[in-house]
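WARN no homologs supplied; continuing
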Amino acid sequence: MFRSNFFHSAALFLVFGLSFWGGKTSASTLDIVKERGYLTCGVGEHDFGFAQRDIQGKWHGFDVDFCRAVATATLGDPTAVRFIPVDSQNRITTLLEGEIDLLTRTTTWTLSRDAAMEINFTRITLYEVQGVIARSELGITQLNEAKSGTICVNSGTTSELNLADYLNRNQTNLEMLVLETQQGRWDAFFNGRCDLMTSDRIDLQAGAAMLAPSSDDYVILSDVISKEPLAPAVRNDDDQWFDIVKWVINTTVASEEFGISSQNLQKMKEELSPQQTRLFGKVNNLGGALGLDPDWASRVIGDIGNYGEIFDRNLGEGSQFKVERGMNNLWTKGGLMYALPAR
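OK structure emitted
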């Protein structure tokens, strides 16, 4: 009896001990978010079209909307988000240190960030390119026409690295002026400290629309220095949370493909196709696979809208920036946006 009990106790100790040391007893990100009652999300600040506060202090923007989409999917409330402003220097550190659950601030998906850092990129939300804006008085349309001068760029960004490569490759006489913040970069450009500036092209379009005294004061050059696929990121220690964020984003794209929007969702739910039923039907088990309830996808579209709605109101025709969809249009309309199958 003693021998049997001894081995039984030892076996239990081994099982529970391995579970403890393997981290199995630690709470998931979803559990932590539910217990806390709100999502913490890293976004930019004064990031025109992507993340900015109005005079009442309410957050708006493309990146903000994806935070709200995850909040309503997981908590049933799109306002259950605490937005944490981060910059290009501290955004990934803030995520790794657990100060935020999700990073949506414009961040380029690169091999070194993906493989060398303990983060996972979820899904591309914006296909971007790095461009250049110039003071109109230079009289140029391409970067190689600038024989000398200073070009501003933010530190800690892929834009800085890409610009250094470009200048080295083309052996130009341009000098880099590296600045820490977006606001500092824009101030330097419009105050004449630099003749040109480089960043993501939509950032340049939006910033110029908001800050330039006149559209005659600047020109966005035709150059494309690099491809910049932007994607939200999570820590790489929670596959469930990674899947949730990835499929929330995917659902916004799938809904646009289906022709389902925040405006017609309830009407469309009366005659759903089999594909649509798997996401929006009253009886579906896809939510359970993610740890969510059956209505999660309906809330995402009803509260936030499909991908086209998110793009349009923040960056596109419904905004003051009038950015064309281009590569960010659906694949059926010549773009690169393509929903993974929900089944």
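The chain is about 40% helix and 15% strand.
OK
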